[in-house]
Amino acid sequence: MSGVKAGIVVLAFLLIGTSEGSAYLLDGNCAVSRTDPGTFRIAGGTETSTYQNPWMVLVISHNRVNQYRCSGSLITSRFVLTAAHCLIFSYTYVLLGDHQTEDPQIGCPSENCIPKSYLIDVDKKIIHQNYNKRQELKFDIALLRMASEVTFSDYVRPICLLVGEQMEDLSVFKVTGWGKTENQESSQSLLTTTVYKGGRWFCEIKYRLQTDESQICAGSQTSRTCIGDSGGPLSAERSYGGIKRVFQYGFVSYGSMNCTDIGTFSVYTKVSYYMKWIKDRTTVSGSLTSGVGMVPLSESSPLWQTIVMVISLICMAFTITVSAYLYIKQLHSLHGKCFMCYMVALFISHLLLLLNLWNVWELPSISCTTSGLLGYFFVMAAFFWLSVISLDLWNTFSGTSHSLNRYLPEHRFLAYNGFAWGMALAMTCFTIVADQVVDEDWAPRMGTNQCWIYTGDNAALIYFFGPMILLIAFNITMFILTTTRIMKVKKEVRNFAQQKQWNKKLSSDMRTYTFFLWLFIIMSLISSLEIVYFLVRKNESWRSVLKVADYLNWSQGTIIFGFFILRPSTLKLLRERIKGDNNEDPGTKEQISLENKI
């Protein structure tokens, strides 16, 4: 009998361990609330202690004339959670760590200290894609990514958010903010009060708006939230891992405009309802986008990324418009035209990436989604053009009896255009449709956390990494088949009477093949690093190792320019072109290899 009891006890511990193991804190350094002897005395609220709410953030949205103040909560070292309706102006910054807004103590008195408070610009605003302030203020949630991380201290520390487990249903909460008091004046000090959960019908009757499970209705007979409290956290203390911590259950969404209307209930956005949305965007958006596919890699300096990418774009533009295709007529071959299309697609995708880095478009917005779709289209087009080139090289060495050779070069180029641009367009349309009909967990989520598809889970394998792997595999197969065919052709050439003439043509085609083989190896290596990063994205050690991939991705134009354009043979052709010495044989135009020029 004792053995049975022991087995039951062990089983209970295992079940408890399994249940707790599935949940975790969004930031493990989150709120252990403190009080100090200096406790001070939204409307009807009391002033808080300096140490009591280190996760509180003052959110200021402004333009050149006006500003709008809200509250928010620090949830990681880089992200602030607030209400979407707070972000009414283009520019936003946040104040952390100082509860006195009239004269905040910003920065450090010495070089080695940890700042008590921070005043930081917001470099990215992520508003829920379904938010519409004209429709009952639902989906009223937004994330603010600060321009730099903050260092945690007694004054600055994130509030706790529980991931992977529903929070217990409580009825008593604390709400905190800098909103207007019963005197109709904005508080210069952080205030807090206790509110009690009520039925949602209380708020529906009061505001004549429908509420749902994503919202909480709460209030008090002695105090209430008011203008300026929006985004302020609705919190409660609970034990987690044997430590009492403060967890966020919601934040202020809307209520009465009359701050003297004590006893009125307000509507709060329920955080647990949006926990997956928050987790997905804080784990990916903290990274800068990079690479051909704009895939998030490590957080490198935006300044250095800008410098490297601008140089790369200049090199691409020079390669396309001057040194190769508009200036050197010998490169106007079928292979050269395909290479030009590849470079055009690569150039536009990198240009959109650079604009995304500069936060030209707000999140979410039609312009951001459009930019992401265009970027996706040109990225996929670049991959398909590489496949076209590998297919055409194989066809070149397959002999005149092959079916593709029934077309003239001009007709073949039109067919290649239809395939490369058409397939890229088809995949882009597929992505648009999937965002409308597929469940969010498996949708591409274009423009939700960056102006690109969401790459934080395995859904990205369907829309980007999977097709990329298939195209790389196809190219490898075609180059292997081409190499095999070249070896066979070399043996056949020895038996021809006009061996010298055929050797010359074979040598020319071999140089073309070698050129594109190197291009494929370099581009595939860079793309493979993106795939590897995606597969090991949760391993911090590998993230550090793959940081070099950032610069390789951003420098693709520079690599192509340096490796293929700045070669003695190309420079010689440029000099000849400048001098007007360009006497090519028209009959051999299509047989001149790129390697001869590059």
What is the structure about, briefly put?
With 598 residues, the protein is α+β, with helices and mostly antiparallel strands. Helix content is 43%, strand content 16%.
Structure, described:
The protein has two domains: 241 residues, Beta Barrel (Thrombin, subunit H), CATH 2.40.10.10; 311 residues, Rhopdopsin 7-helix transmembrane proteins (Up-down Bundle), CATH 1.20.1070.10. The strands form four sheets. It has a six-stranded antiparallel β-barrel. It contains 14 helices and 17 strands. The termini are far apart. Helix 6 packs antiparallel against helix 7. The N terminus and C terminus are likely disordered. A hairpin with a 2-residue loop joins strand 13 and strand 14. With 598 residues, the protein is α+β, with helices and mostly antiparallel strands.
Shape, per Cα inertia axes: elongated
Cα separation of the termini: 85 Å
Give, in spatial order, the strands making up the sheet with the most strands: 10-11-12-15-14-13
Q: Characterize the main sheet.
A: 6 strands, antiparallel, barrel
Count of strand segments? 17
The poorly predicted ranges are: 1-21, 35-45, 285-300, 582-598
Question: What's the layout of helices and strands?
Answer:
Elements: H1 2-21, E1 24-25, E2 46-47, E3 56-62, E4 67-74, E5 79-82, E6 91-96, E7 118-127, E8 142-146, E9 162-163, E10 172-177, E11 191-198, H2 200-207, E12 215-219, E13 233-240, E14 243-254, E15 266-270, H3 275-284, E16 289-290, E17 295-296, H4 302-324, H5 334-357, H6 366-396, H7 409-437, H8 460-493, H9 499-535, H10 540-545, H11 547-554, H12 556-565, H13 568-579, H14 594-597
Antiparallel strand pairs: 1-9, 2-11, 3-4, 3-6, 4-5, 5-8, 6-7, 7-8, 10-11, 10-13, 11-12, 12-15, 13-14, 14-15, 16-17
